[in-house]
Amino acid sequence: MFTKAIVRKPCKNLASGITTANMGLPEYSKALLQHENYINVLQDCGLKVIIMEADDNYPDSTFIEDTALLTPKCAIIMKPGAQSRRGETTAIAELLKDHFENIEAISEPGTIEAGDIMMVGKHFYIGLSERTNEAGADQLIDILLKYGMTGSKVKLNKVLHLKTGLSYLEKNNLVISGEFLNHEEFKKFNQIKIKKEEGYAANCIWVNDTVLVPEGFPKSKKAIEQAGYKTIEINVSEFQKLDGGLSCLSLRV
Predict the structure, then answer these.
(1) pLDDT digits 0-9 by tens, 115-146
(2) What is the DSSP letter of 224?
(3) How far is it, in rounded angstroms, from Cα 22 to Cα 72?
(4) CA atoms within 13 A of residue 61's CA, in its CB half-sphere
(5) All domains of the chain in start order, with CATH
(6) Residue of 102, 98, 99 whose CA lies nearest to 73
(7) E strand map for 169-245
């Protein structure tokens, strides 16, 4: 069960963020409202939400998930693969000192973003992508082993991050789409398959037995509900324009 979430407000330079979505530029005022609603939903799910102020120096900094991995035993500061995002980790590292006794960090030549990391119990799947390299994944696995956890690597072919196409919903249930559908590594899970045309909905988040899903993907919502979950739809259209999803907008612990 989660008790806390950390979020970071969108900055005024949001529209300068990295994107391959070709969906137009995000509207800052609309993004602020959507972010506020996201916070409200997390609070309604019983989480205490810690809100970090926006930083105009880092257009992508609202996608706070990529900056750190929070585990029951330690926090691990990431080394973003996007050079323009490297400085985002400074503020989160400082904040986490008040919440974790043990803080580790990935160092060069390793690069890793937590959007490429999916926790399943004490095991962590790590996507090898344009943002996460072998050196970063190997460092992470060494840190996990130090604290009695494990990790394994998964090569990505098409998606930006591992959790672009996968979301673990506890109880061995896995939302899955695209290139992962026939992946041998994930056949042991109860698969909740997402249709190609609703691929964006594969990035959803389990929060204390409720699943938060992006608004506008009815087939995916129905599939998750048929698996026994209560769902809450959240409009994150402005973040979708920057390749961001629901999990990207918070760190949960």
Answers:
(1) 999 999 999 999 999 999 999 999 999 999 99
(2) H
(3) 38
(4) 23
(5) 4-252 (3.75.10.10)
(6) 102
(7) 173-176, 190-193, 205-207, 210-214, 230-234
